[in-house]
Amino acid sequence: MDQVDYTVYTFGFDGNSIKDLESAVRRLGATIIDIRMEPYGPSKVFNRPQLQNQFGARYVWIKELSWDGICQDCGRVEVKDIDLGARKLGSITADGTPVILLCACENIDECHRNDLAKQLNEECGWKICHLPQPVAKSGDLFLDN
Ligand SMILES: [Zn+2]
Fold first, then answer.
1. Exposure of 11 by Cβ count < 10 A (0-12 exposed, 13-18 middle, 19+ buried)?
2. pLDDT tens digits for 64-98?
3. Which CATH number is 83's domain given?
4. Over 50: is that where the pLDDT of 136 sits?
5. Ligand 1 centre and the CA of 55: distance in Å?
6. How far apart are CA 21 and CA 12, in angstroms?
7. What separation in Å is there between the alpha carbon of 77 and the centre of ligand 1?
8. What is the pLDDT of residue 27?
9. pTM score, two decimals?
10. In a domain, 144, yes or no
């Protein structure tokens, strides 16, 4: 998992439509990585069966990467099983396939996908891009394709 010039994307679907996700997947050629503890919620279109139906192999639920609490010692967000989760993730990203970490939370600061992305940035050097985003601002060069 140490590619250079690799970007990990994240997407919080609350307040966004399935169309936003769909267009991001299409634009990036990405695979959705669902990192919710339970891939179900009030919004049916974002439930696992619907997502599997719509995106096929481009949708994968990696339960091991779901939120599992906060470390008592260091205050860091912990995921269920980072080793297994990272291995599963690595098997998808190995050929350079972009991934979109999917969670519900609208606010990135309150979501563990932020911590997970940061961890991937620290350990693998991956760039981070939170979706959906308004049209690329200057500086967001990697959004331009
Ligand atoms: Zn979240």
1. buried
2. 999 999 888 888 889 999 999 999 999 999 999 99
3. 3.90.190
4. no
5. 21
6. 9
7. 12
8. 95
9. 0.87
10. no
